[in-house]
Fold these 4 entries.
Entry 1:
Amino acid sequence: MPGKNSAVNDLLSVRQGELPVMKPCVQGMCMVPVSGIAGNLWQQHITAVTALPPDAAVTTGPLPLPELLLPALPRRRGVSRRMVFWRYAGLLGGIFLALAMLASWMNNQRLIRNVGDHLALYHQLTGKPVAPKLRAQQRLRADGTLLDDWARRGEPLCYRLGLYQGLRLVPPVEAAVSDWAPPPPPPPVIKKIIQCPKTLRLDSMSLFDSGKSALKAGATRMLVNSLVGIKAKPGWLIVVSGHTDNTGNPKLNQTLSLKRAEAVRNWMRDTGDVPESCFAVQGYGESRPIATNDTPDGRALNRRVEISLVPQANACQIPGKTPASSQDDGASQHNGE
């Protein structure tokens, strides 16, 4: 048996090229007559002991196969290198698919948990105060918009592989968003009414003769009654502007309107002891009508002198007086007769 081990088992335990290592599962021995070398020591020993001559017959046939052991041998097909490659490729593909499905499942569970937390927080808030409830609703609106976009365009790859759970989250999100609305804001409270600057509108025909820029003799009384509310105030500029209708030359009308405005300014400066730095004089001529020039009444309205108070920080700086607020001024209109 030691000879068999060295001759057979040791030979099979070493890989031979593409032939893998083979481990015998069953071993058997078959005793058959074979011819030996003539005059070998074993034959001489047998002859000396038995006094029988050795068998000189030579066996030329093949040795018999161990037919009794063949049915007990395991049967399997051989494995080529290509089959080994495809086995490993299939194994790696299966592992990759399993990992991808695991990642998709984890992402879907995270999506369900996040949306569920947003829904739970939204339902816990009562709406008093409004800001936390409104922020929670806006967060749910963002979730709903994202889920709707995925429903139209398709969910990201990390949620796919048949495990996407976003569709069943859309109905509860839409129901939660639509079941509450913030109360309307309270109406604004008017804390301070700022009135427009005072504007006086004087009829030019009551102050001046036609085509003239000098004040009439009887215009003083009307000016006193009309300009009683116009006072010099630091930070306010008194703007005197003259206007005419479209009768005559436009350039002459503009010059006439400017001279009439200067005449009113000079009377206010001299009578009311108002510094000239409090005034600004402008002549617009026929460029700013307030009525149509196609009728006599409209042209009469357009022939006017307007006096306005306009806020200006560095205007009318009178020593000892501080700038006046606009809330101290009203708005009025006077049409002379």
Entry 2:
Amino acid sequence: MSVYRNPIFWMFLAFLSFIVITLIFSSVLTPYVCALVLAYLLAPLVDRLETLGISRPISGIIILIFAIGCIVGSILLVIPIFIQQAEMLISAFPRIYNRCLVLLERLLPTFIENNFSLETEVLNAGEVLKRQGLNFVSGFTFYAFALLDLILLIFVIPIITFYLLVDWNKILIKSARSLPDQVSTEINGVAVKIDNLLTGFVRGQLIICIVLSIFYSVALSFLGLSYGLLIGVFAGLISFIPFVGAALGAAIAVSVALYQFWDTSLFIVYVALVFIAGQLLESNFFTPKLIGSAVRLHPIAIMLSISIGGTVAGITGILLAIPLAGIFAVLLRELSYQYLDNTFFKDPE
């Protein structure tokens, strides 16, 4: 079969084109891509309600309200505790900084003398604000428009998601009917593999975030770390950001431990061991079992995809790197199977 008549080749080309177009027009397409992802995740729930005799539009509204309600309810449930601990943590930052500085002075006196001679200037918030005042004023308009964009996204994304949920099955049916009969079975088979990959990835990542949030918050609270609940839940929830999440959570926890357990260095070691244990559990058990089996990517390929995603699209690229690399691998794997099954490859004569 000629490569130009190979349906998998065109799927591969369409996938690459979608990524390029999304990157070029990211400012315009962001709400639509977010809505597409949400519709993909929520469509099975809408289908379930529809089988119970509820019309599709009503099912879409119910599921959207339920999803938004879960998010808002969770926030309202834990936000008072988070606010209280966040305020205490922010107010403690100057003391944490001073104690860390004293520790560094004891351990590395020469380094401190050479690099921290401007301590008073750094801690003088008034002088910093004066120097940065003009920059703040000039940047106020930018941040105001960014906030406006965020508010618009919050309202626009649910609307787009609703329309996609209502017409989701119609879109799938029309897409399937537009395929020639001789290639529809092959394309549908690849689409099912991609769907299984994405479903397994999302499910596995969600389970990992929940388990790590519980593990970190319980372990840190058991050790008696101040703000342990806030830091533990935060570290667990951002663990979906590869490498960055665990490093950031550990840095915050160890900083607080340096302040709280100043005279008992063993507790600081315990706090660090909590995050080391969490990372060992994630990398050696949870990720291989829940995500590795779904995306079928080698660890080196995962690291490479995260590096490329971060370079091209920042945090968004890091978040989407693994599922996109998984889709890329599925299509590339199918192309390689067809190549190996090619008559020319089997019998060049």
Entry 3:
Amino acid sequence: MFKFLNTFQRIRNGFILSIVLLIITSLLSFLICISFFQNIRMINQTAAAISQFQEIKLVLKQTESNIRAFALSTDSVYLIPSIAEQQDQISTNLLSIQKSGQLDDLAPKSISVLKNKIDSRFAFWKKVITEPDCLKNKECYSEDNRQMNELELLFNSIIYDHKKLLLEQNRIYNNYTEYLIPVILITSLLGIIISFISYMGLKNDLKVKVENLTQLNNLKTELEFKVNSLNRSNYELDQFAYVASHDLQEPLRKIISFSEVLIHEKDSKLSSTATSYLGVISKASVRMKRLIEDLLEYSRLSQTSAHEYEEIELEIMLVGILKDLEIPIKEKQVDISLSKLPPIWGIKFQLNQLFLNLISNSLKYSSPNRLPIIKINHQIINGNLIFDFSAHASEQYCKIEVIDNGIGFEEKYAQDIFMIFNRLHSRHEYEGTGIGLSICKRVVENHKGFIQAFGHENEGAMFRVYLPIKPINHYA
């Protein structure tokens, strides 16, 4: 059983570990995918921003060349496309970059500075268009070069920052792939290995279970065969006991009857010795008849069934038993105290025989030196509080004690007195067949209960009986 539990726990722990590793692997894969797509998106945005900056820079250079050509030739062909169209294209590119958020992440004020400088540049070019000779002026020419250099530096700075950001994004992505992918591979491999081991363990466990089930079915079949054989033997034994008891009792009844007739015949010519012998024969026959009856009663107790159980009022039953024993009780002037007993479930004729035998036993072995006292007490007790026997912990028991102040017995014989035909005294001292207490034990065992005997020589004896309040599974 413990081996099975350990195997089950190992398989369960293996599956739990596999699930944990699967969750970790899935989580890591999810994180890598998120990081991968974020890096791809950021790389694409950064590359697009660089491309747009370069495109703006190219448009500005082309516009600058056209303006200078126009200033030299005053030919309007160099103003195609127009300044307004060029400015609109650049504004569109700047707006696209601004929406991507790349520029603001690097330098929050870069976009506004760049836009202002570009606007200043276009304002200067518009002035040149209206005053073509402006570039011939030294101050105007210097202003043109200054604006051009500042824009060049600003563009180079922004493009450099974006390329630097692009390198950092690639580095982060490479770090993720360098460390997390091996971790995913390792955890996945461990999960596969542990799952395989768990599967093999489960497969072996199922194989053992199938073998055990097959063996159990074989044992069940064998047990059913033996039970049927035993039932058949019991039936045959019951038939034999009935026939034997009937065939044995009939001759005994005749022996007893004819012996009594011969003994009490008035005109008998038998000698006193013959009459004495007939008395011995009669007594022996009566004793043998009682023995056969007790054996028959004992054999009847060997088989019980659940349908024989009924609710029994113990107090009413014991009052009836005391009434049946009224004559010997009065003859011996017995003081009997009976506590209020609860109802229990049991087989009525068996429980009647149990208490009849116990009370009769106390009457039989009463002390000649004092008036007999018999006390019958009871207590409801839980099975988990019974330590002398293997009681059902969840059941309630009725503990009944039959206590007397008779001749008692030595404590060392407490177990022997329940053995069939076992006697502590000779039949010349006390009559009996030696089966009464054996019947008591059989009745108690049939009810899944327990019985104990306690005694002190010349002081008295106590018989303690534990009976379940409710019937326990007959095969439990």
Entry 4:
Amino acid sequence: MGLNNVIAPGMKAAFYGRHSTDKQNMDTQLRSAYDFANHYQCKIIGEYLDEAVSSRRKERKGLEALIRDAAEQKFDFIIIYSASRLARIPKEHDTLRTTMNILGIHIVESSTETLYSYGDIVYSSIKDALAKYEMDKIRASTRDSIKTLLNMGLWTGGRAPFGYKYHPKLSRTGEKDNSEAVKEFTKHLPIEDSMAIQRGKFEIIDHELILAKRVFSLYKDGYGFQQIAEKMPAKSYRGKNWDKNKVKQIIINPFYSGVVAIRKRNPSSRSSLNDREDWLMNKNSNIQPIISFNEWEECFRIYEQRKEKRLPPNYYKTSFLLANLLFCKTCDQELKGKDQRSKGYGKRIYICNGCGFKVSIDDVHQEVMNLFLKMQTKTAEQLVKTVQEKILKDCYEMESNIAVISNALEQEKQKLFNLNEKIEKMFSSNGDETIIKLLNIGKETLLASIQDKTSQISQLEKSIKVLKDIDANEELIKDKMMDFKRLVELPKSKIRRIYLYFIERIYVEPPGRLECKFRINLEEDV
């Protein structure tokens, strides 16, 4: 069908344009559309624009408005620059064509002066496939560009996080190359100003960073996202109130430790994160950090444990400082904290649900505190050495376990290979169906065991990485030792963290005698 059979002088047109990157100029699309309208003596009565919006975005306000107005018959036809401006996935093209055909509204491409909404099916399919190919090419190119910026220690784009403002670099390459002029100009400037002009600069927003530091501090003290948000001053998040998501975005962002990360988010669900193994991270010297990378790692580990329900919301922030640590010597059951003061009498206690043995919270807390104070005779250097030796020992044990499991895994894989061969031979020779069925049951059991062992190895490898990268870090250990040395001065949430760090479990038996089993041997030479 030719355009002259569809478009007549005086008809009303709508223009739809979209671009996703800075290099794709909307002016080109608009100029082409207005030239097309003039040529066919038509009038564009509305412009529907989606600027800096990817075709992958499900929410495109310009396109949504276009479809709404098309349903109300506000115009006779639609002008687009090319099919790729509307969509890039063939399925999306089919949906748009069907919708506009039902409404009786044609779509024309100004760049080729062809009809988008009709035509040969094979030709349309080829065009749609090419549009998808172009999208994949742009996506790959964008990913490569961002990765290059990351590896160079440069900002990868987007709005700077809360507490910072980004000033783009002034040097340019390509058609607007000014590198020589910039080089000459910056020769006589201080090195800091010179680098800012050539690489860009992050300006610190002091009053915001004070709040960001408080967010990390409260999170380490055991507060949850919502609790932290409620503690923040009103309208102090860029003129808006805080909420739990704003707090979360600070906690999960390594930017605050001077590190830029890409590929953090799952493309199919922007609210969820990819596995840490998929992230690409690099230190950026332009960022002035407010915490160390190891401190951020510690916060992120707490976040992951809470997300996976491995930690209850008030795991750290509880008045029962020995929760999950205190066990009955007689029953080997955990003693649970119970507050009996609401009855007008009684007190807070730990109680064994097995035998009913009770111990006063004040008595047992004081006894454990006294035990720790007694062990403070060790120097900080001795404590750091003791902790590091324990971590190395734990790593060695886990690596030994990995070797044992890996050996068993290889044996099971060989068994699976032999079993598959046997099943295949029996199939080809029309063997006994009952035996084949039994072999398949054995195969399923073997596959489940292989999957379980693979998961065990993966979990052990992650644990070793955490121990080596975070727990063995000397600065973090020193921080904990500083807390250990001034235990009586600490808030309860930090005291609980120290107990959880050093104590494996405490056995208690009537009339209240304690037997403490430490993760790290602190009793030596005491």
